[in-house]
């Protein structure tokens, strides 16, 4: 069943929605439980990171559809743990203060980078490690998956910093509340059309590779490039959410715990 491209595309769509919802649910639940709960979330989820490392290592020489699936899921496991650590405020950056008013553009950029520096450097280090491990490997889909997620994430952050019309800050957990002061809500910058063009080209590139895989009857590559095509299309969609009048937050709102209320008995 999982060797069918349509199933692969639907599973990628489901994982994008469900994994995002689980992360938001966990960090907002930890918000209600107190700061220590964020740290424990990251510590107790370390097996997820370990599973990702072991999964990547086990699939490097397995180009079969099953190997490609496990490589894709292993990359998501690595990414998911780092994102949880970031959203929990455990791995962020040295700057945890709101943006000071009146900063010059360059100073504002470096101040903003300071809020996410350790997170970005960790992602870059994992990407480099994957690139080294995947050199000459028969199955590099873990590398491609992580690289795509990394590129799309950097692009989204830059667009939020430079300016977009639609910014949803409701999902920011308490440890990252200061990040909203670095977002710029307004007309898009010149970077937005460049970023969506590059993502559209990525979609086209992966679709072209998918067509070539079909021509060569390479089942593993068919699954891999189907997953990457869907993932890049979803990244492109997330960018357009920044400008469309679409309430994308409704996709995950129901998974966020309701605020605690105090009830007094009389």
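Q: What amino acid sequence fits the structure above?
A:
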């Amino acid at each position: 069943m999982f060797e069918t491209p349509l199933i692969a595309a639907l599973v990628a769509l489901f994982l994008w929605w469900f994994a995002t919802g689980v992360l938001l649910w966990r960090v907002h639940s930890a918000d209600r439980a107190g700061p220590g709960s964020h740290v424990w979330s990251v510590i107790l989820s370390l097996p997820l990171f370990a599973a990702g490392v072991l999964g990547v290592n086990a699939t490097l020489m397995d180009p079969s559809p099953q190997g490609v699936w496990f490589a894709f899921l292993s990359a998501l496991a690595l990414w998911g743990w780092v994102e949880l650590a970031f959203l929990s405020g455990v791995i962020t950056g040295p700057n945890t203060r709101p943006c000071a008013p009146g900063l010059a553009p360059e100073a504002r950029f470096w101040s903003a980078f300071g809020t996410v520096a350790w997170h970005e450097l960790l992602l870059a280090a994992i990407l480099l490690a994957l690139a080294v491990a995947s050199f000459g490997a028969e199955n590099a889909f873990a590398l491609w998956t992580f690289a795509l997620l990394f590129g799309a994430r950097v692009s989204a952050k830059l667009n939020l910093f430079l300016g977009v019309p639609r910014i949803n800050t409701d999902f920011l957990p308490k440890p990252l509340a200061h990040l909203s002061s670095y977002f710029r809500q307004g007309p898009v910058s010149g970077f937005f059309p460049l970023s969506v063009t590059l993502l559209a080209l990525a979609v086209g590139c992966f679709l072209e590779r998918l067509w070539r895989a079909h021509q060569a009857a390479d089942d593993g590559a068919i699954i891999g490039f189907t997953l990457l095509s869907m993932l890049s299309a979803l990244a492109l969609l997330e960018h357009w959410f920044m400008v469309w009048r679409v309430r994308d937050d409704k996709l995950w709102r129901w998974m966020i715990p309701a605020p605690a209320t105090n009830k007094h008995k009389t």
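Q: And what stands out in the fold?
A: The radius of gyration is 19 Å.
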